[in-house]
Amino acid sequence: MPSQLRSAWAPAQLNCVPTNTDISLLHLISMLVTDIALLLMMLAGLFRRQYYGRGIRHGLARYLWEQV
Predict the structure, then answer these.
(1) Of 8, 13, 22, 23, which is the most buried if we count CB atoms within 10 A?
(2) Enclosing domain of residue 19
């Protein structure tokens, strides 16, 4: 059974509020861990690139420009 985040209308707050947040807690934790791991790998790659010459500032700007 796939777990989905459900929400319900709260008239006092005039918006929708999540009702089953405990179900999605495991998914949120796994996404956080994955995002932190990807961020650390990206920063390690940028610092490695700086060590080998091009620098973070110029290397990152050029890399982003090439992605456009």
Answers:
(1) 23
(2) 7-67
